[in-house]
Every structure is written in structure tokens, then in C-alpha cells.
Design brief:
- This protein is α+β, with helices and mostly antiparallel strands and 234 residues long.
- It folds into two domains: 136 residues, NADH Oxidase (3-Layer(aba) Sandwich), CATH 3.40.109.10; 64 residues, no CATH class.
- It has ten helices and four strands, in the order ααβααβααααβαβα.
- The radius of gyration is 20 Å and the shape is globular.
- It binds flavin mononucleotide.
- Flavin mononucleotide binds next to β3.
Length: 234
């Protein structure tokens, strides 16, 4: 039997653009963040960070960075979902530390996290190794299946992909709690980065406005592409 609560959350989640001024309980936010932390990520490297904007002055500037979109202005909570493309080394070390704390490292764990991960994610000073790695993997792929040994741009895509999955999980968890969200990529990335004091290799993946929908919160009826445009069997 399908889990009807899960489908109810998926089906009732809508992008909400006008929120009630009601606060979101901290425990609700905590549970949703902890659900999002379970999202899958590339090599389990969890390149995300949830920045909950509490300071009223920062919040005002963040609303402006979100181009003063109504969801940003009306939501009781605004979160910047940040992606870090250079935390893979630190997080790889943490994964190894945790594995080792649980018992002897398995050979597959050692080889994956000690050899394969650095090979795939290292791009060298100024990313100079990246183009070379791409060429090597493209040529090797002509002869046998080969993973993409990543360039700097590929690592950035990897980090954004995984972070967006955490954002999706977070939004569905909040819906399961009876709350609503608006994901926003309509924002000024330079101002957002400066405002949140993000390090060089971090970026806002999207802003998430969180709260409870007002009566006029959902602007349009749902529109879906035809199923056969988006599903293909070969
Ligand atoms: C990555 C991403 C960025 C989005 N950016 C914005 C945005 O800046 N402003 C906004 O009002 N909606 C934004 N949306 C919401 C979409 O417009 C919305 O998901 C889409 O119209 C489908 O509606 P639904 O979420 O209610 O099903 C964004 C959604 C995603 C996934």
C-alpha cells in the first residue's frame, strides 16, 4: 500500500506567494531541517547549509536581494539554502572519521573515499586540472564506460544538484507539517552572497520562504506538461 501521508504532502505542496503573519514553531523548522539532512547527495558529501535569517536588518536586506518578491516580504521565516562546492574534502574526512569510529574501514570505503573522491573532485589551482581531466575522461569513454572526472564547473553542478534535493525534501517535510514554502531563484546572487558573508566557493542555491499560506497564497492552478513529454521508455 502506498504511504498516503507522503502522497498528500506531495500533492498539496504548492508554491505559496502570500503568507499569514503566524510564526513557524522552532520544532517544526528543526524537524524539517533534519528531514532535509537525510536527502541523498553526491557521494554523501552533503554540500549544503541552511541559513535561517533571524536578524531583522539582514532580513530586510535579504528581502531586497530577493527582489522584494511578495513571498520574501510576507513569509515569517526566510531561509537561504546555500551550496558549498569546496567542503567535499572536510566532509569526506568526517565520513571517514565516522566510519572508522564504527569499526575497521572496509576496503570499499577506503578506496572510494581516499582514492576515487579526490580523483573526481580535485580540480587543481585555479581549476586548471579540470579541462585536462575532462579531456582524459572523454577520450577514455570512447573505449570503456568512464565517469566524468570533474572540472570546476562540474563540481559546481554537483553541489547545486545535491543541495536542491535537500531543498525539495525540506519543502515536502514542511508540507507534511502543515506549512508552506516558496522556493526562489529570483534573487541577486552577488548581494545575497555578500549579505550572508559566504566564502568564495559558496553560493545561494535558492531562498526558501516558509510559513502558512494565506487565502490568496496560491496564485495559479497547477499546470503540468503532458505525461508523454516527460516520460519515455526505451
Ligand atoms: C529552483 C526554483 C526557483 C523558483 N524561483 C521562484 C521565484 O523566484 N519566485 C517565485 O515566485 N516562484 C519561484 N519558483 C516557483 C515555481 O514558479 C513553481 O514551483 C512552479 O510554478 C510550479 O508551481 P507549484 O510549485 O505550485 O507546483 C521557483 C521554483 C523552483 C524549483
Amino acid at each position: 500500500m502506498p504511504d498516503s501521508a507522503f502522497y498528500a504532502a506531495v500533492e498539496t505542496r504548492r508554491t505559496v506567494r502570500d503568507f499569514l503573519p503566524e510564526a513557524v514553531p522552532q520544532e517544526v523548522l528543526d524537524r524539517a531541517v533534519d528531514a532535509a539532512r537525510l536527502a541523498p547527495s553526491s557521494s554523501n558529501l552533503q554540500p549544503w547549509e541552511f541559513v535561517v535569517i533571524r536578524d531583522p536588518q539582514v532580513r530586510q536586506a535579504a528581502n531586497a536581494a530577493c527582489l522584494d518578491q511578495l513571498p520574501a516580504k510576507t513569509a515569517p521565516v526566510l531561509i537561504a539554502q546555500v551550496t558549498h562546492r569546496d567542503t567535499w574534502r572536510r566532509n569526506r574526512d568526517e565520513i571517514l572519521r565516522i566510519f572508522e569510529g564504527r569499526g575497521p574501514l572496509r576496503p570499499s570505503q577506503a578506496s572510494y573515499y581516499r582514492k576515487i573522491i579526490p580523483l573526481v573532485y580535485t580540480t587543481g589551482p585555479f581549476g586548471l586540472l579540470g579541462p585536462l581531466k575532462r579531456v582524459i575522461s572523454r577520450v577514455a569513454s570512447l573505449f570503456k564506460p568512464t565517469p566524468n572526472l570533474m572540472s570546476r564547473a562540474d563540481v559546481r553542478v554537483m553541489a547545486h544538484k545535491s543541495t536542491a534535493l535537500a531543498a525539495a525534501t525540506f519543502m515536502l517535510a514542511l508540507r507534511a507539517e502543515g506549512y508552506d514554502t516558496c522556493p526562489m531563484e529570483g534573487f541577486d546572487p552577488w548581494r545575497a552572497k555578500a549579505l550572508l558573508d559566504l566564502p568564495r566557493h559558496a553560493e545561494v542555491n535558492m531562498f526558501l520562504a516558509v510559513g502558512r499560506r494565506s487565502e490568496t497564497g496560491v496564485w495559479w492552478d497547477r499546470v503540468l506538461m503532458p505525461r508523454d513529454w516527460v516520460v519515455r521508455e526505451i
